[in-house]
Design goal:
five-stranded parallel β-sheet; binds adenosine monophosphate
Protein backbone atom coordinates (compact mmCIF):
# COMPACT_ATOMS: atom_id res chain seq x y z
CA UNK A 1 0.00 0.00 0.00
CA UNK A 2 1.12 3.55 -0.63
CA UNK A 3 -0.11 6.65 1.15
CA UNK A 4 -2.59 6.23 3.97
CA UNK A 5 -4.11 9.63 4.59
CA UNK A 6 -6.84 10.52 7.03
CA UNK A 7 -8.82 13.66 6.30
CA UNK A 8 -10.68 15.36 9.14
CA UNK A 9 -12.68 18.55 9.32
CA UNK A 10 -16.02 19.98 10.30
CA UNK A 11 -18.75 20.28 7.66
CA UNK A 12 -17.95 23.23 5.45
CA UNK A 13 -14.19 22.81 5.90
CA UNK A 14 -13.92 21.69 2.26
CA UNK A 15 -13.05 18.04 2.84
CA UNK A 16 -14.84 16.96 -0.35
CA UNK A 17 -12.91 19.43 -2.52
CA UNK A 18 -9.58 18.51 -0.96
CA UNK A 19 -10.24 14.78 -1.18
CA UNK A 20 -10.85 15.30 -4.89
CA UNK A 21 -7.58 17.21 -5.21
CA UNK A 22 -5.61 14.48 -3.44
CA UNK A 23 -7.30 11.73 -5.46
CA UNK A 24 -6.46 13.45 -8.73
CA UNK A 25 -2.92 14.44 -7.74
CA UNK A 26 -1.82 11.13 -6.22
CA UNK A 27 -4.17 8.71 -7.99
CA UNK A 28 -5.42 7.11 -4.79
CA UNK A 29 -9.03 6.24 -4.00
CA UNK A 30 -11.17 8.39 -1.71
CA UNK A 31 -12.92 6.16 0.79
CA UNK A 32 -15.76 7.69 2.75
CA UNK A 33 -17.43 5.35 5.23
CA UNK A 34 -20.61 7.46 4.97
CA UNK A 35 -20.63 6.78 1.19
CA UNK A 36 -19.93 3.06 1.71
CA UNK A 37 -22.86 2.81 4.13
CA UNK A 38 -25.18 4.81 1.87
CA UNK A 39 -24.24 2.56 -1.06
CA UNK A 40 -25.68 -0.42 0.88
CA UNK A 41 -29.15 1.07 0.48
CA UNK A 42 -30.04 -1.29 -2.33
CA UNK A 43 -29.05 -4.41 -0.38
CA UNK A 44 -31.74 -6.37 1.40
CA UNK A 45 -29.63 -8.44 3.83
CA UNK A 46 -29.96 -7.94 7.59
CA UNK A 47 -26.70 -6.04 8.01
CA UNK A 48 -27.52 -3.54 5.25
CA UNK A 49 -31.04 -3.04 6.61
CA UNK A 50 -29.73 -2.46 10.14
CA UNK A 51 -27.22 0.10 8.82
CA UNK A 52 -29.92 2.02 6.95
CA UNK A 53 -31.87 2.29 10.22
CA UNK A 54 -28.80 3.65 12.04
CA UNK A 55 -28.08 6.16 9.27
CA UNK A 56 -31.64 7.43 9.34
CA UNK A 57 -31.40 7.97 13.09
CA UNK A 58 -28.18 9.98 12.81
CA UNK A 59 -26.40 7.65 15.27
CA UNK A 60 -23.00 6.08 14.60
CA UNK A 61 -22.68 2.56 13.24
CA UNK A 62 -20.95 0.29 15.81
CA UNK A 63 -17.17 0.06 15.65
CA UNK A 64 -16.96 -3.66 14.72
CA UNK A 65 -19.27 -3.28 11.72
CA UNK A 66 -17.53 -0.12 10.58
CA UNK A 67 -14.08 -1.67 10.88
CA UNK A 68 -15.23 -4.71 8.90
CA UNK A 69 -16.50 -2.50 6.07
CA UNK A 70 -13.18 -0.65 6.04
CA UNK A 71 -11.17 -3.89 6.12
CA UNK A 72 -13.08 -5.11 3.09
CA UNK A 73 -12.56 -1.82 1.21
CA UNK A 74 -8.84 -1.65 2.00
CA UNK A 75 -8.35 -5.16 0.64
CA UNK A 76 -9.62 -4.17 -2.81
CA UNK A 77 -6.92 -3.86 -5.48
CA UNK A 78 -6.85 -0.05 -5.89
CA UNK A 79 -6.43 0.62 -2.16
CA UNK A 80 -4.14 -2.33 -1.58
CA UNK A 81 -1.80 -1.09 -4.32
CA UNK A 82 -1.94 2.68 -4.10
CA UNK A 83 -3.18 3.61 -0.64
CA UNK A 84 -6.22 5.53 0.41
CA UNK A 85 -7.73 8.81 1.57
CA UNK A 86 -9.98 8.00 4.51
CA UNK A 87 -12.85 10.42 5.09
CA UNK A 88 -15.30 10.06 7.96
CA UNK A 89 -13.19 7.23 9.37
CA UNK A 90 -11.93 6.69 12.00
CA UNK A 91 -14.65 8.44 14.02
CA UNK A 92 -13.71 7.04 17.46
CA UNK A 93 -10.39 6.28 19.19
CA UNK A 94 -11.39 2.57 19.16
CA UNK A 95 -11.66 2.67 15.36
CA UNK A 96 -8.31 4.46 15.17
CA UNK A 97 -6.66 1.81 17.35
CA UNK A 98 -8.18 -0.96 15.22
CA UNK A 99 -6.95 0.71 12.03
CA UNK A 100 -3.41 1.06 13.35
CA UNK A 101 -3.35 -2.59 14.42
CA UNK A 102 -4.80 -3.73 11.09
CA UNK A 103 -2.24 -1.74 9.10
CA UNK A 104 0.57 -3.03 11.29
CA UNK A 105 -0.44 -6.62 10.50
CA UNK A 106 0.00 -5.72 6.85
CA UNK A 107 3.35 -4.01 7.46
CA UNK A 108 1.89 -0.55 6.87
CA UNK A 109 1.06 2.55 8.85
CA UNK A 110 -0.86 5.82 8.70
CA UNK A 111 1.12 8.37 6.66
CA UNK A 112 -0.51 11.44 8.17
CA UNK A 113 -3.75 12.84 9.55
CA UNK A 114 -4.78 16.11 7.91
CA UNK A 115 -7.08 18.23 10.04
CA UNK A 116 -8.76 21.02 8.05
CA UNK A 117 -9.39 23.49 10.80
CA UNK A 118 -12.24 25.97 10.62
CA UNK A 119 -13.74 28.08 13.37
CA UNK A 120 -17.26 26.94 14.14
CA UNK A 121 -18.82 30.31 13.38
CA UNK A 122 -17.50 30.19 9.80
CA UNK A 123 -18.48 26.51 9.57
CA UNK A 124 -22.05 27.47 10.45
CA UNK A 125 -22.15 30.22 7.81
CA UNK A 126 -20.68 27.96 5.12
CA UNK A 127 -23.52 25.45 5.60
CA UNK A 128 -26.40 27.75 6.49
CA UNK A 129 -25.60 30.25 3.73
CA UNK A 130 -24.98 27.68 0.98
CA UNK A 131 -27.20 27.64 -2.13
CA UNK A 132 -26.53 25.94 -5.42
CA UNK A 133 -27.47 26.10 -9.04
CA UNK A 134 -29.00 22.73 -9.90
CA UNK A 135 -28.23 23.22 -13.60
CA UNK A 136 -24.48 23.88 -13.28
CA UNK A 137 -23.85 22.33 -9.86
CA UNK A 138 -22.05 25.51 -8.80
CA UNK A 139 -22.34 26.58 -5.16
CA UNK A 140 -22.75 30.10 -3.82
CA UNK A 141 -22.99 31.48 -0.34
CA UNK A 142 -25.04 34.42 0.86
CA UNK A 143 -22.29 35.38 3.31
CA UNK A 144 -19.22 34.97 1.10
CA UNK A 145 -20.07 35.62 -2.54
CA UNK A 146 -23.32 37.46 -2.35
CA UNK A 147 -22.23 39.81 -5.16
CA UNK A 148 -23.06 37.05 -7.68
CA UNK A 149 -26.54 36.43 -6.33
CA UNK A 150 -29.70 38.20 -5.23
CA UNK A 151 -31.12 36.87 -2.00
CA UNK A 152 -33.45 37.57 0.84
CA UNK A 153 -35.52 35.85 3.51
CA UNK A 154 -39.17 35.33 2.72
CA UNK A 155 -41.64 35.26 5.58
CA UNK A 156 -43.88 32.22 5.80
CA UNK A 157 -47.29 33.84 5.38
CA UNK A 158 -49.39 31.48 7.40
CA UNK A 159 -47.46 28.91 9.41
CA UNK A 160 -44.68 31.30 10.57
CA UNK A 161 -42.03 28.57 10.41
CA UNK A 162 -38.59 29.44 11.71
CA UNK A 163 -36.28 30.41 10.13
CA UNK A 164 -37.96 32.30 7.28
CA UNK A 165 -37.31 30.70 3.87
CA UNK A 166 -34.18 31.80 2.02
CA UNK A 167 -34.86 32.73 -1.60
CA UNK A 168 -31.82 33.23 -3.85
CA UNK A 169 -31.38 33.68 -7.59
CA UNK A 170 -28.36 34.30 -9.80
CA UNK A 171 -27.98 38.00 -10.62
CA UNK A 172 -29.71 38.80 -13.88
CA UNK A 173 -31.65 35.53 -13.89
CA UNK A 174 -34.81 34.45 -12.16
CA UNK A 175 -33.73 30.82 -11.84
CA UNK A 176 -34.06 30.01 -8.19
CA UNK A 177 -31.02 28.49 -6.46
CA UNK A 178 -31.61 25.45 -4.29
CA UNK A 179 -30.67 24.81 -0.71
CA UNK A 180 -30.04 21.43 0.94
CA UNK A 181 -32.89 20.74 3.35
CA UNK A 182 -30.53 20.05 6.25
CA UNK A 183 -28.60 23.29 5.59
CA UNK A 184 -31.78 25.35 5.77
CA UNK A 185 -32.50 24.27 9.30
CA UNK A 186 -30.30 26.27 11.69
CA UNK A 187 -30.88 23.78 14.47
CA UNK A 188 -29.79 20.84 12.32
CA UNK A 189 -26.64 22.67 11.19
CA UNK A 190 -25.74 23.37 14.82
CA UNK A 191 -26.42 19.75 15.79
CA UNK A 192 -24.10 18.45 13.06
CA UNK A 193 -21.38 20.82 14.27
CA UNK A 194 -21.90 19.76 17.91
CA UNK A 195 -21.72 16.08 17.00
CA UNK A 196 -18.52 16.66 15.05
CA UNK A 197 -16.88 18.44 18.00
CA UNK A 198 -18.03 15.78 20.43
CA UNK A 199 -16.82 12.88 18.29
CA UNK A 200 -13.57 14.27 17.03
CA UNK A 201 -12.08 15.98 20.07
CA UNK A 202 -10.87 12.66 21.59
CA UNK A 203 -9.67 11.54 18.17
CA UNK A 204 -7.66 14.70 17.61
CA UNK A 205 -5.93 14.11 20.96
CA UNK A 206 -5.33 10.47 19.99
CA UNK A 207 -3.54 11.41 16.75
CA UNK A 208 -1.71 14.37 18.26
CA UNK A 209 -0.28 12.08 20.97
CA UNK A 210 1.06 9.80 18.21
CA UNK A 211 2.58 12.74 16.38
CA UNK A 212 0.43 12.02 13.31
CA UNK A 213 -1.69 15.18 13.28
CA UNK A 214 -1.09 18.07 10.89
CA UNK A 215 -3.42 21.06 11.14
CA UNK A 216 -4.17 23.21 8.10
CA UNK A 217 -6.38 26.30 8.20
CA UNK A 218 -9.46 25.76 6.04
CA UNK A 219 -10.25 29.47 6.17
CA UNK A 220 -8.19 30.13 3.02
CA UNK A 221 -8.85 29.82 -0.71
CA UNK A 222 -9.31 26.20 -1.87
CA UNK A 223 -6.10 26.25 -3.93
CA UNK A 224 -4.07 27.54 -0.96
CA UNK A 225 -5.36 24.70 1.20
CA UNK A 226 -4.55 22.20 -1.58
CA UNK A 227 -0.97 23.49 -1.83
CA UNK A 228 -0.54 23.20 1.93
CA UNK A 229 -1.81 19.61 1.80
CA UNK A 230 0.52 18.77 -1.06
CA UNK A 231 3.50 20.20 0.84
CA UNK A 232 2.68 18.00 3.86
CA UNK A 233 2.29 14.86 1.73
CA UNK A 234 5.54 15.51 -0.15
CA UNK A 235 7.41 16.02 3.12
CA UNK A 236 5.99 12.74 4.51
CA UNK A 237 6.80 10.86 1.32
CA UNK A 238 10.43 11.90 1.38
CA UNK A 239 10.90 10.67 4.97
P1 LIG B 1 -21.04 10.95 6.81
O1 LIG B 1 -21.43 10.94 5.37
O2 LIG B 1 -19.57 10.79 7.03
O3 LIG B 1 -21.62 12.10 7.58
O4 LIG B 1 -21.70 9.63 7.46
C1 LIG B 1 -23.08 9.38 7.41
C2 LIG B 1 -23.48 8.40 8.50
O5 LIG B 1 -22.78 7.16 8.31
C3 LIG B 1 -23.12 8.82 9.92
O6 LIG B 1 -24.11 9.65 10.50
C4 LIG B 1 -23.03 7.48 10.64
O7 LIG B 1 -24.32 6.96 10.92
C5 LIG B 1 -22.41 6.59 9.57
N1 LIG B 1 -20.93 6.61 9.64
C6 LIG B 1 -20.07 7.09 8.71
N2 LIG B 1 -18.79 6.89 9.08
C7 LIG B 1 -18.84 6.27 10.30
C8 LIG B 1 -17.86 5.80 11.22
N3 LIG B 1 -16.54 5.95 10.97
N4 LIG B 1 -18.29 5.21 12.36
C9 LIG B 1 -19.59 5.03 12.62
N5 LIG B 1 -20.58 5.45 11.81
C10 LIG B 1 -20.22 6.06 10.65
Amino acid sequence: MGLILILMGVQGAGKGEQAKFIRETYDIPHVSTGDLFRAMKTRTDDLAQRIQGILASGRLVDDDTTNEVVRERLSQADAAEKGVILDGYPRTPAQAAWLEAHLKERGEKITTVLLLELDLYTAFKRAFGRVSDSETGKSYNIYFNSDEIEWGFVEHETDKQFPPRLRATLKGSDRELTRRVDDGNADSVLKRIDTYVENTTPLIDYFRDRDLLVTISADQPITTVSSAIQAVIEAKKSK
